[in-house]
Amino acid sequence: MLAHRMPCVAAGILLASSLCATVAQGQTAAVTQQGTSLGDAARKAREQNKGRQAGKVITNEDIGDIKGTVSIVGVAPAVPAATDAAKPAAPAAAAAAKPAEVVKDEAYWRGQFAAARKKLADDSKELDILQREYNLKEQQFYTNPNVALREQYGRADLNKTRSEIDAKTTAVAKDKQDITTLEDQLRQAGGNPGWARAQ
């Protein structure tokens, strides 16, 4: 059974290869009949484009001369109501444009204290982590005599962590001072002392 299939498979392969060769010869003949290859077509297109002028480059100075509409994607800008009528009122508009004084009500003070407490809590947590890290490094440093011999002159890692702890301690002290300052400002503004407490 296998012996009968082998000649059929071989004949099929032979037939397919002859068809591929015929198709390739046909394509080559078509290219030569047209007389141009892909490279020739590219050269011809380049020569045709040489005679054309390059498109106009629009600069900021040319924008005022453009006529017609421009399609803008997104939110359209607000159009002023009056053009010449608004010019004399410019000083009044400038006075109105000054930022209004912030109303220091309960929501304002609670927000200020919440932000100050969050900053203090974050800095305190980082200080605690740095202190634990330093203690761990210090124990590892002294319990391992090989490390102690190698590091006895530098202690760079411990010194670096110690300086980070000192900086964070200063930040925590500043955060506490900021909360005290906020409490003083609340008292001077005549606000309710309960606004300083966390909800």
Can you describe this structure?
The protein is an all-alpha fold. The protein has a domain at 126-192. The protein is built from six helices and no strands. It has helices at 2-34, 38-50, 90-97, 106-143, 145-151, 156-189. The chain is flat. It starts with a helix and ends in a 10-residue tail after the last helix. The mean pLDDT is 73.
Write a short abstract of this structure.
This protein has 199 residues and is an all-alpha fold. It is built from 6 helices and no strands. It has a domain at 126-192.
Summarize the helices and strands and which ones pair or pack.
Blueprint: H1 2-34, H2 38-50, H3 90-97, H4 106-143, H5 145-151, H6 156-189
Helix pairs in contact: 4-5, 4-6
The biggest beta sheet reads: none
Structural class: mainly alpha
Please, how many helices? Answer: 6
Helix content: 55-70%
The SSE order reads HHHHHH
Rounded Rg: 41 Å
Q: Which strand-content bin applies to the residues?
A: under 5%
Summary tags:
single chain, 199 residues, mainly alpha
